[in-house]
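One-letter codes give the sequence; the fold follows as tokens. Both lines appear below.
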Amino acid sequence: MKITYLAYTKQPDKSTRLSVVSYDEWKQVVQKNRMLPAEKRRYFITDCFHDAGTLDCMVIETSYEEYRQWNRERMAAKRNRNLGQKICILSLNTYLKDSQNCITLEDILQADDHTEKKMIDKVQLEALQKELEDWRPWGYFFWNYI
């Protein structure tokens, strides 16, 4: 695994530019950050990717706004991964273990029961009700009256 550190450095012409720094230089910046108030801190994001079979990581200095956006997306992805672990997806061809008659989940669902269509209809009606309410405040009440 290769880690590259990119930080803003002052150039001889007094400008700042994003450039590659060593681990020791990056570590000094992080140590100085601990002493600074939040509005003067330097913020870094991490980006990892596979390149030619090895994992490459980049630690990049960014603005506070970019850091907040990156952190928000990262936390949302983590939350979704954790919630996704709680979801169990079953095939309709799965046999029920407790069943002695070898019944599948598909057999349990009634052939005339259109669960998907009912859900789609419900979602579309809720969206229509929301649009009515946004259009005119009394639109939602009129919908319920009908």
Summary: Residues 2-84 form one domain.
